[in-house]
Design a protein that fits this description.
Strands 2-1-3 form a three-stranded mixed sheet. The protein has six helices and five strands, in the order E-H-E-H-H-E-H-H-H-E-E.
């Protein structure tokens, strides 16, 4: 936040508990999002969203936007894109790590994903013209739309139908796309999870940047107490 142009900065997020299949799936998702996608977005100075669960804001900019609006279901995305449209900057700080409690069953996960998807659609409709005028952000939004609409439909419906009706070799499409997700996830999971006596980042090889060590996917993670799941 030393840069006066920066209105907000977000950190690296990982689930606190990784015991159920839903929490493990979210762990993999966050390794890919925060270990691969977010650094690329930050390289171009346009993180697509300053995560509402772990971000710091410049008070003057936050007040200028009227705080967190309730006009969409994804108020953090709404605020981030409003900052960009106002000519302000948002940055990603990978050395700052947060461990929120994530949905542990299908019911909670489904509600959260519906809210996120509906909030994303609302923000695209609300900020459509403004986003088109923001370099790089428009391409990140386009990729997200492609992934949500075209790629998902192809993987869930098109490839299985082609494999059944045309040729089973179409199932190789899943294997071809696999490394695009597995390589970044495994690379991010290669470090040891920081403990109480360990800082939340280690010095990276390039440029002395502090990079989070999110921990091994099947590493030591204690299940949450019963009270935390209520």
């Amino acid at each position: 936040m030393d840069d006066p142009r920066v209105a907000a900065a977000c950190g690296f997020v990982l689930p606190r508990h990784v015991s159920t299949v839903w929490e493990r799936g979210r762990y993999v998702e966050y390794l890919f999002a925060f270990g691969f996608l977010k650094p690329i977005q930050d390289y171009y100075g346009k993180p697509m969203i300053a995560s509402g669960c772990f971000s710091v804001y410049r008070t003057a900019d936050l007040r200028r936007q009227g705080g967190w609006s309730t006009r969409t279901l994804a108020e953090d995305m709404d605020l981030t894109w409003s900052f960009y449209e106002a000519g302000r900057a948002v940055r990603f700080v990978p050395g700052a790590v947060s461990y929120p409690i994530e949905p542990h069953d299908y019911g909670f996960m489904g509600k959260q994903l519906r809210r996120w998807s509906h909030g994303f659609a609302q923000n695209v409709r609300l900020h459509g013209q403004g986003v088109l005028g923001v370099p790089f952000l428009r391409w990140f939004v386009f990729v997200a739309l492609w992934d949500a609409l075209v790629a998902s439909a192809a993987f869930l419906f098109l490839l299985p139908l082609l494999a059944i009706l045309v040729d089973p070799l179409f199932l190789l499409g899943y294997l071809i796309d696999g490394p695009a997700v597995l390589v970044p996830v495994l690379a991010a999971a290669a470090g040891d999870r920081p403990g109480a006596d360990q800082p939340p980042g280690v010095l990276g090889a390039a440029g002395g940047q502090r990079r989070p060590r999110p921990g091994r996917l099947l590493g030591r993670v204690r299940p949450p107490p019963a009270a935390a799941r209520r």
